[in-house]
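ugh finaly. both done.
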Amino acid sequence: MPRRRAARDSLVNVALRGRPIESILIERDAHYQVVLTPVVADDQIVGVLLLGAQIGSELARELRAQMRCEVTFLSGTTITGTTLSDPEDRAALLRMLGHLELRPTTDLRNLGVQRVNGPHFVYLTLVQRIPVSARSAQQLYVMQRSFDPETSFLKVMQEDMLVLAIIALVLALITGLFFSEQIIRPMQRLVRGAQEMEQGNYDYPLGIKRRDEIGYLADRFSEMRQRERAYLNSLEHTARLKSQFLSIASHELRTPISVLRGYRDLLSDGTLGTVTPKQQKALEAMRDYLTRLTRVAEDAAHFAEVKGERLTLDFQPYEVEPILRRAVGTALAEGARRAVHVEVQCETMTEPAECDAENLGNAIMQLVTNGIRFTPDGGRVDVHAFEREGSLHIEVKDTGIGISRRSCASSCRTGCPASRPTTTSPRKASSSTRPASASASRSRAASSRRTAASSAPRAASARAARSWSSSR
């Protein structure tokens, strides 16, 4: 009691010197925030006005309403006001302060947030000195927030976020399914329709009946398919007319050719009179041109049979090498004026190949002839026959202009079935077209020129394995 009165007297003495002062006044089990102001009369200090408010539970409750936390005031180790209703919580707070061992020189600003374990809650605790209080008096205020509601709130937030994530995932799946059904699936149907159209199926159902942009695209695609079908039908009709014309023309040519050949033979034999050497030379030239004209007529008739699918094949066992060398010899005779090296390689076969010797030889001759024709002088044409996995493979390679892979595939897309079923054989004949080269500028011309040549090997090796060479 004398110490507390001495504290108040010291504050009054300071104020009597003419200086207002603000401080903490410590009384019995309480402390006050006070302001002392000198009272002046006739230019003399006649007294001191002391105004103050108790720092206690009422102020703590007001601060809790504003700060949303528990507030406790201490004078030393005595609680002068608190919002903690549980005595055990207050005791836990005092124990924590005791463990801190606070001294007048301790800087509480560096103390940080402490954790106080109460009987029911865990509190995050902040300890600071009351402003304008003396360090030696240990006048403190403590702010505490329950840690458990914070963690429970965080847990609730995490659960809510998880639920929101699941909802977002479900919505994303529903949206993806919707877009898949409305956009991706129709586009896939259109792509499949294009693929089927490429294979010749113009009746593939799209199943798209909508009035939006995709429906408009599907309608235009269907119209395009119909126009494409009509165009191909017209091309097929033109091809049939062409085949019929070739068939009729070749047939009509044979009669005058036979008559011309007969008269030439009569003249050459001297039946119609003596022939001079100069006339005999002219007759020999006539024979060569009649032979060439006969071959043209036969080729036209053969081409018409292939295109009209009227070709009759006679499959018999034959040795491959004689057929190969006879065809190459015929091609060399036709290209005698060209300086192109032709090399023939025929590997040993386990047994004769079952094939149509005449048509196969004609096919090889056409391929070698084209190879010589479209290879510059100084180039080469390689003819290679070999057996692989029970099938005969014949490759014709050259160093000429070649054709592109796409043109090669398109020229050999359709085949000609034989007039009778082929018998099963462990080895069947197959042929190969000339390889493609890097000359893209002339690939279409080469492809169109070789259509007849590539049709013959397909007819000669109907339903047989094919070997297409792509190396130069």
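ok and the 2nd:
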Amino acid sequence: MVRGLKRVLSLRLSLFIAAGAVTAISAVDAALAASRTFIGTSSHDWTSDSNWSPAGVPVATDDVAINAGKTADLSNADAAINNLTLAGGTLTGTGTLTVNGTLTWSGGTMGGAGKTVAGGGLALSGSGTKTLNRTLSNTGAATWTDTGNITIGTGGVLSNEHGASFTVQNDQTISSGGTSPRFDNAGTFTKAIGALTTINAGVAFNNSGSVVVQSGTLKLAGGGIGSGAFDCTGATLQFSGGTYNLTAEASISGTNLVFSGATVNHSGSYNVTGGTTVSGGTANLTGDAERWHADC
């Protein structure tokens, strides 16, 4: 009985010590976390200690800022940080930057052959244009607010991953700034408020997830492919340019659908309860058309 009691007390003491050690380690990690700003004293190299204020290459617990006029080149390694604020500066290079916290982008450029992973939230805000010439992968919740437009250039891919969300809360435009820019949606893309959001000619919009138009009009002008759902209940979806090839798995439903210049080849289900307006282009609906009210 005494021996059994000793074993229990020993086990509880061990667990208490282990828990205390974890708490202590967490406290040390929090204490070591820093806010670092790229100043580029000696070069553009992300991995140089002297290019940061305070000095030291950022680690996974650090918050990072790249401000206007500064270019941080992440090419010699991959990196992981906590939060990133890109406010008019440039992130470039061939490496992968993983942002585990929030990536706040109010203006500036992401370029190079590398990849940026927004793992803990993506906030596109402010009045500045966001220029994307690399892959930006959103795996969390993204919001696009305020008056700043997005330009996707050569090598640029904005990827809203499966299980992620990209919510538009403005009336701005995604434009082409180079060769073969893309917006790949495997998650949920929502036009939540406002009158008109346009994805301009030259920017392919590929949808294998869900597109939800809750307010105003979502205007797609750059073509693309899709196996996902388009739902414009209470709003309008407009195909205004380019060629869209939608598979049998794809669906279009909602209140108002406008074909105004695009070629849409859709072999999936079609259920538009308000009106379908064909003012230009070609609508090849070869799937299950439950409701088709055409105003030509």
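summary for the 2nd one i guess: DSSP finds one helix and 30 strands in the chain.
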